Every structure is written in structure tokens, then in C-alpha cells.
Amino acid sequence: MEEGKAVPQSHVQELYGERPKPGFGAKLKAHFKKWWWLHLIVFIGSTLIIVLCLVYVAFPKIAQDGVNNSILEIQNLIFTNPTPNSFHLEQTAVLTNHNKYHPRLDAFNASLSVGGSEDRPFAYVEIPAVHATETATTHLEQEVQIVDLEAFTDYNARLWANSSVDLVVKGKTKLHEMKFPTVTVDFRKRIKMRGFEGIPGFNVTGFSIKLIPEPDGANMIGTVYIPNPTVLTLTMGNVTFNNFVDDEFIGTSLLSDLVLRPGNNTVTMRSRVNQTLVVEKVKETYKNGMLPIEIRSNSSIYNGQHLEYFEKALQGSRQHVVLNVGAALAALTGGGSAG
Hints:
Largest sheet: 11 strands, mixed
Helix content: 25-40%
Structural class: alpha+beta
Shape: elongated
């Protein structure tokens, strides 16, 4: 082979064979070596999109689901200082949260309504801020204005007549959890409140007849037992009832400054009764002295003002008791009282 002359390609191939082609791994390595910056941009962009979706799309839904799955239980409701258009409210409630995260909820304004009538709230209350741990107790105390008297009357009527009534608490609040952005959530809880169920245990546990009326006109004085199976404490003022025998009016009864507390309530009853008519009923019809009386609610007055939301709610209420009038009349000469 002469010096200075180029070696033909065919001779090189004959001497050394064909040059091997690069494999997939080598190609991939070369590709990343050349375009690493582009893949880095794509990776960062994809990660950012995933994180943003988690923060701004997934987390708000997770937060809302957590609020929806929490349970609000009212432990007591105390109504005091009632007026025709307002009342003072104290409430203790427990919020149960079984989620793994425990956010903080800001204070917010919530509407109160009867289940099935959420478009007609009867009042608004300020729900205090709460840290939603596994169980968190909240307490509120405030003056509440009645914004829909008819709706509030309906709520009370259902409470008196039924074993339970649904109370809906609804509003919007801000939720804070760790470093996530603050989100707005809908707070809506439908709470099943225990009702009075018509007060089936209502009873006159004892009474005495006065031949000479007392200064307020009362000529029959006794005690009344009123069970309260609810968590409600109700200040109702002076509550009056009309009393009937065989649908014939025989007089009125007064429960002064009535406050119904959870559990058993025993209160004094002062009545003005047509004694002549009562004696006539005993002699002619109820000769065993056991007089069946129907008691119908009449009025509820606090500080000289009628509380229509109690009066109208109780209009359909009827209580029936049997009084041993014969024993009470006999006690006029021998002393004692009747049950």
C-alpha cells in the first residue's frame, strides 16, 4: 500500500468489519444528554400541575366532604327573656370529626329552620369559631331576633306535638388546615331534636278546694307534673289553661312564671273554678267523685306581653286528667287534699 494514498472504504470494511450501530440505551443516554433541560422543564411543569390540582381542586372537595361527614349534636338549648320578637339563647353543642385532619372553622352566621322548610329560616345565630378535633365543644350565648314568626311558631308546634323535629343549621364559613390555602365551605347540619310528643305524662298530682277564694280569685290549688324529655329549657311566663268537663267550660288554671327544664317538672297550679257546676257534675253524672277534665292551652304571657309562638303552637294541645273531686270535697270537712 503506497504512502499518501487514501484507503478505499471497501478495504477498511474488509480489514475491520462494519462499525456497530448504537443500541437503544446509548441512544436514550445521548437523547437525555442533549435534551435534559427540556425534560426537566416538563417534569417541573407536570409536578406543578399535580400540586396545583391537589391544592385548588382536590383539597376544597376533601375539606367540604370532611365538613359534610362531621356530626353536630346539641346538648342543651336554653331560651330565656322571651319577647314577642326575640329571645335570649344559650346553646352547648358537640362537633364530632372522624377525619384524620383537624381543621379550624371561622365563626359564621347561620340560619335556623325546620327540616323541609330551609327557605324559611326563623332566626339567625352566630356560630363561634371552632377547632374541629375529634370532639369539640362549642358554646354560644346571644340575643336572637325572630325573623319569621310563622316559621318559628311552626317549629314550636312540631316540638310540642311530635317525638322529634328536624332543625337545620346552615351557613358558609372559612376552613383552615395546615399550610393549605383557606377555603370556603358550606356548613349544613340537619339535627334531629327530641320533641315533647304531646306531653303524655302531664298530670295533676294533688289539689285542694277553697270555699273562700284567695286574694287572686283562686279557689282550687294544686300541683302539676310536666315531664320534659327534650334538651330544651323554655321560659314561658304565665301560662293559662281553660278547663272543660264534657266540653262544658268550668274554669281556668294558671301556672305562674313557668320554666320547663329537661327532666321532671313539678309546678304550682292556681285555678278559678265554677264550683257550683263541678258539684252538679259530680251529683248528676260522676257520682263516684272522679271528674274527667280536658285542659286546653289558652295563653302564654311574659312581662305583660303575649308570646304568640307559644300560644298558637299550643292551641291544638289537649291534656286529659281525672280528678278525685269527691275526696277533695270530703276533705273540706276532714282536712287534707285530693289526688
